[in-house]
Write a structure and sequence with these properties.
The complex is a heterotrimer of chains A (488), B (299) and C (273).
Chain A lengths: L1 H24 L21 E8 L4 H15 L3 E9 L2 H13 L6 E4 L4 H5 L11 H4 L2 E2 L4 E2 L6 H7 L10 E6 L1 E6 H7 L7 H14 L4 E4 L6 H14 L4 H4 L10 H9 L8 H14 L11 H9 L3 E7 L3 H5 L8 E4 L21 E8 L9 H11 L2 H11 L2 E2 L33 H15 L5 H23 L11
Parallel strand pairs in A: 1-2, 1-3, 8-9
Antiparallel strand pairs in A: 3-11, 4-5, 6-11, 6-12, 7-9, 7-10
Chain B lengths: L1 H13 L1 H27 L3 E3 L5 E3 L3 H8 L1 H18 L1 H14 L4 H13 L5 H12 L6 H7 L14 H7 L7 H13 L2 H9 L4 H12 L1 H17 L2 H6 L11 H11 L3 H25 L7
Antiparallel strand pairs in B: 1-2
Helix pairs in contact in B: 4-5, 4-13, 5-10, 6-10, 13-16, 15-16
Chain C lengths: L1 H31 L4 H5 L12 H41 L5 H11 L4 H14 L7 H24 L3 H9 L4 H12 L1 H17 L2 H6 L8 H6 L9 H24 L5 H7 L1
The chains are: A alpha/beta (488), B mainly alpha (299), C mainly alpha (273).
């Protein structure tokens, strides 16, 4: 009996001591921030920082190349880049954990626009505001850094929550519609320039019964709906911007202005010009291959590659695979999302609009920077966004840089952004109110497209949801009509 | 007053071996399970976005949850998964284990057993790739298949009425290799003499299975049943990848609702609340089924 | 005689049918591992016209650097689970100690806590313990979570062992630890094998936790190599499946090894006793 106790105790102590032992051995190397040994003169100051992101085609190769070039210019600065996750979702989980344990890297590459605010500032973490750096002279262009970007792009990178530039996006995602040229020739179709012409083409494809559906759509995730909502809003709802932009007057609307506009009835889902767009979207989806509700863009693209559909959405990241290992077995081309004419939407400006997203945005986490190396980090970002480096990246990875005066790779011909939006107008998806109402709208859209609810039920439920979410936001942020939505 | 307490200490002392045997486990679980769990559940009383700031709000999250229609829908959907996991999910491993057990050739038995268990190496990525392809209404095989038996083409994962059952059916043939092993090991543990006696008495195979095998392996079957409840309630990977809960809320399950609340909507306090309520529901279901299925070892 | 033959024929037929269904995904995995991206896009079930063996060399390069890490982690986790859970299960099955019921339900309750929730508190804990970027940050939580199911499996198995076996040992004056190691564990080989397979498999596939806690390339598990073929824009299914196939070899060895114990189950042990 005694021996059994003894041996179990022995086992336990082995477990416990090994735990202590190995945890003590755990080399937790968090070499962060600057080596403060250097003198204040700056020239010999040794600086070290880490950039983290998730994997993407050519992302690591591109970054490593820039880092290598930078080493030639600034030998005292050691920059390391690490792909810590494969997908953006996993990266978010990784980052949430690192932040909670104060293990975050100094710099990350993330999405632009509302993302850095939602993911970091809203949770109580600090990220570096970059507006002051726009006026500083970049040593790599000898001009103000802000002049490296289009004003409209900077405006689109700014957070819609507080209107500040908390990130700088280095590339653009452009969206096109890919079409099967062989089938177009077979059926004698012309490339559509208006929405009506596109639907006419779809009809002809249906009638011809060639064993292919008109369009490969996908609606498991919200991207296709988001794109449609944005394109159509840019064409038909531009007139609202001055009416909404009443607090900051910066030709852009922030969350508080949006809430105010809903309260005042300027933004109203029931208005015919908004309601019409939902109906337009449904009409569009009736030409999609069945089952789109559970498809991703990959599955939709695969159907197009199999020539089971004539059209599909495509983004500039497809350009490289479509030219190499995923080369379609048929002739193909792209066109931009067609114009919605006044006869369909009376408020349309009939300007073609196209815009995807900004990508590869640098976000600097001051919470991770122990010594004051913000200027050194920003110097690297200025180097990265210099025309010379941006050109190298564009050639290497076929990206569309945000930096002005950079020629995109010639292979990207079919994906060049022809029409730039003047503003991000998105009154249909409720994205600006937060991710919960945005998901709600999307789920209702799925139901509406499947005929589970009517247009009236759709509009009613979204309208109700918007009012509830606005009430919630006002309570949380302490906004009211009386205090001019926090501006008094 | 002090008499029972003395007795308690006495019996604690008498069973000191039991406590020593339990100690390694308790230390491990205390550190790596109980501590983080208590910290997580605590957050269900906070407005917490996952960052360093948290505001105590009492039962507000619970009030929101009880008004959350999506949560009730997710529970209803989870019920279907639980129902399936607890019936077909228990029955199929049992059937296959009995078939294996009745194989005369030990070599064949080894081969078949190893093959079944080898299926554990199949990554869920490939299962999803196969089923998503099969369910594709225009290029997949399911519509061809149901056409043979005279059913019109369906939207499968993309249809309001078909999405939930399409996900459930993607578990086909519902033979969890680990469950199969558990049942098989239990069958092997039945003393040979009992089976020999039943043969001598001229019992048929069915009678032997019902009167000897099932009562003797009921403990293992109960375990699989309970694991079925837990799996049905918690799992959300397939739902997330195949439909993301859609169309609408048709395939939303509590686990996915919680995941979305936390990592998509940054409402970790609310996610903790969903987790807390799920835990209580599962505990209740487990205790009830534990009491309903009586086995030898519960006294 | 004839009847027996028909019965065993039906048995084999049914088992083969079930094997076919269960094995189908493995066949597709092997098929996909030989395809290019385009071939996967053109049809999951289609046989490739050109076979891409180079997927395996790409997979080999991706998986190999991490293989030893995963083997070390998985073996340590399996041993830890087997030791800690068999001790605990023995206590649960053979003693009626005060607090048994409460402890039982407290451990059951652990199965009901979603892993998603405890990620952040757990991370804070391992930061406080200064365990980041070590093997132990992965192994110890794996042992803890693996023990939960193992305790229940072993408990119901131990409890099902006939009481008279224990009596004969007790009469000989055997110590508790002797009863456990000489009587109970040898009889429990099949279930121990099951637990080993289960935990080896879950340790092998553990993804998010090592991703979050190990940032040092030299310590990362094999999943890192497998997942390197997938990102948000595209998945290289061919090499990825090849990597899965290669990475499953150690697991298959464990399975083959564990399955051997099923023949020497209770039947042989009970006779000896």
């Amino acid at each position: 009996m005694k021996a059994s106790t003894k041996s179990s105790v022995a086992l336990l102590s082995v477990i416990c001591s090994s735990m202590l032992l190995f945890s003590a051995c755990g080399s937790n190397s968090n070499s962060k921030g600057a080596n403060e040994g250097g003198n204040a003169g700056g020239e010999s100051k040794k600086v070290e920082f880490k950039i983290s992101s998730w994997a993407g085609p050519g992302k690591k190769e591109g970054m490593d190349k820039i880092i290598e070039e930078y080493k030639k210019v600034k030998p005292n600065v050691k920059v390391t880049y690490e792909e810590v996750a494969q997908s953006n979702t996993d990266f978010d989980v990784w980052m949430s954990a690192q932040l909670s344990g104060n293990q975050e890297p100094e710099v990350i590459m993330d999405f632009s626009y509302h993302n850095p605010y939602d993911k970091y500032i809203d949770k109580g973490y600090n990220i570096l505001e970059m507006d002051p750096y726009l006026d500083k002279v970049s040593p790599y262009t000898n001009k103000k850094w802000g002049e490296s970007f289009r004003e409209v792009d900077l405006n689109l990178m700014r957070s819609p929550q507080n209107g500040k530039l908390n990130n700088v996006a280095t590339s653009m995602v452009t969206l096109k519609i890919a079409y099967n040229k062989d089938m177009y020739d077979q059926l004698g179709l012309q490339i559509p320039t208006t929405y009506t012409e596109m639907i006419e083409n779809f009809k002809k494809i249906r009638e011809a019964k060639i064993g292919a559906e008109p369009f490969s759509g996908f609606l498991k995730a919200g991207a296709a709906w988001d794109w449609f909502a944005r394109f159509t809003a840019q064409q038909t709802q531009e007139q609202y911007v001055p009416q909404i932009d009443t607090l900051f007057k910066n030709n852009k609307y922030q969350q508080d202005e949006y809430v105010k506009a809903i309260d005042e009835g300027i933004i109203d889902i029931r208005k015919p010009e908004v309601r019409n767009l939902y109906e337009l979207f449904k009409e569009f989806t009736t030409y999609w291959a069945p089952g789109a509700m559970a498809m991703t863009n990959t599955e939709a693209r695969d159907m197009w590659l199999q020539a089971k559909t004539v059209h599909a959405f495509t983004i500039n990241i497809d350009a490289k695979p479509f030219a190499s290992d995923m080369k379609p077995s048929f002739n193909w081309g792209t066109f931009e999302f067609p114009v919605i004419t006044k006869d369909i939407a009376p408020t349309s400006n009939e300007d073609p609009a196209e815009f995807g997203d900004f990508a590869d945005a640098f976000v600097v986490m001051p919470s991770a920077i122990k010594a004051n190396i913000q200027d050194e980090v920003m110097d690297f970002i200025m180097f990265y966004t210099s025309p010379e480096m941006a050109t190298q990246l564009a050639d290497m990875n076929w990206i569309t840089p945000t930096v002005v005066d950079v020629e995109p790779n010639a292979n990207l011909e079919m994906y060049l952004p022809k029409y730039r939006p003047q503003n991000q107008i998105d009154l249909n998806s409720n994205a600006i109110l937060g991710s919960v109402p945005r998901q709600f709208v999307f789920q209702q859209i799925q139901r509406y497209v499947l005929d589970d609810i009517t247009i009236d039920q759709l509009v009613d439920s979204i309208d109700k949801n918007v009012k509830e979410e606005v009430a919630k936001l006002k309570k949380e942020k302490g906004w009211s009509k009386e205090n001019d939505y926090g501006h008094k | 007053m002090s008499q029972p307490r003395v007795n308690l200490w006495k019996s604690v002392y008498r069973f000191k071996h039991a406590y020593v045997f339990l100690l390694p486990l308790i230390v491990l679980l205390g550190l790596f399970s109980y501590y983080p769990i208590v910290m997580a559940l605590k957050m269900s009383f906070y407005h917490w976005k996952g960052g360093n700031e948290a505001v105590f709000i009492g039962f507000d999250n619970f009030v929101t949850l009880f008004k959350d229609k999506a949560f009730y829908v997710s529970l209803k959907n989870a019920l279907w998964f639980i129902l399936f996991d607890c019936t077909v999910g228990v029955l199929m491993p049992l059937i296959v284990a009995e078939l294996l057990f009745h194989l005369k050739s030990t070599r064949l038995q080894y081969v078949y057993r190893t093959l079944f268990v080898a299926t554990i190496t199949v990554p869920s990525v490939i299962i999803i790739l196969i089923w998503v392809f099969l369910y594709n209404p225009s290029i997949g095989g399911m519509n061809v298949l149901v056409d043979i038996i005279g059913i019109s083409p369906q939207l499968w994962l993309g249809g309001t009425d078909t999405a939930l059952f399409s996900i459930i059916f993607s578990g086909f043939p519902f033979i969890n290799p680990i469950f199969l092993l558990i049942v098989f090991a239990a069958l092997q543990a039945i003393p040979k003499s009992l089976h020999e006696a039943s043969v001598m008495e001229g019992c048929g195979v069915w009678k032997r299975i019902l009167s000897i095998d099932i009562p003797l392996i009921l403990g293992q079957l109960k375990l699989i049943f309970i694991l079925g409840i837990l799996h049905g309630m918690q799992s959300f990977y397939k739902q997330m990848i195949m439909t993301d809960g859609g169309p609408g809320n048709e395939t939303l399950v509590p686990g996915l609702h919680m995941f979305q609340a936390g990592f998509r909507h940054n409402d970790f306090g609310y996610a903790s609340t969903i987790g807390f309520v799920m835990l209580i529901l599962m505990l209740v279901l487990t205790i009830v089924s534990n009491k309903l299925i009586k086995t030898e070892d519960d006294h | 005689m004839n009847k027996n033959k028909i019965a065993s024929f039906i048995l084999i037929f049914l088992l083969s049918l079930f094997i076919l269904f269960s094995f189908f995904p493995i066949l597709i995995m092997l098929l996909t591992s030989l395809k290019s991206n385009m071939q996967v896009s053109l049809g999951v079930f289609k046989f490739p016209s050109v076979i891409h063996w180079d997927n395996y060399s790409r997979a080999f390069d991706a998986v190999l650097p991490y293989a030893m890490n995963s083997i070390f982690i998985a073996v340590a986790a399996v041993i830890g689970v087997l030791i800690a859970s068999s001790f605990a299960a023995y206590a649960f099955a053979r003693y009626r100690f005060p607090g048994r019921e409460i402890l039982y339900y407290l451990i059951i309750a652990l199965m009901m806590v979603p892993a998603v929730l405890i990620l952040i508190p757990m991370f804070k804990l391992v930061v406080a313990l200064d365990m980041l970027n070590t093997y132990w940050v992965v192994i110890l939580p794996q042992i803890a979570s693996g023990c939960i199911i193992a305790v229940f499996l072993l408990r119901s198995f131990f409890a099902g062992l006939p009481e008279d076996l224990f009596e004969s040992f007790r009469i000989d004056g055997a110590r508790e630890i002797t009863i456990l190691t000489r009587l109970v564990l040898p009889l429990s080989k099949p279930i121990m094998g099951t637990i080993a397979v289960l935990n080896f498999h879950s340790s092998w596939n553990d993804y998010i936790w090592p991703l979050v806690t190990i940032n040092k390339n030299a310590l990362k598990p094999v999943v890192t190599g497998i997942m390197s073929f997938s990102n948000d824009y595209s998945t290289d299914y061919g090499p990825m499946m090849a990597a899965y196939v290669l990475a499953s070899i150690p697991l298959m060895l464990v399975i083959g090894f564990a399955m051997k114990y099923f023949v020497h189950g209770l039947t042989s042990g009970a006779v000896k006793a």
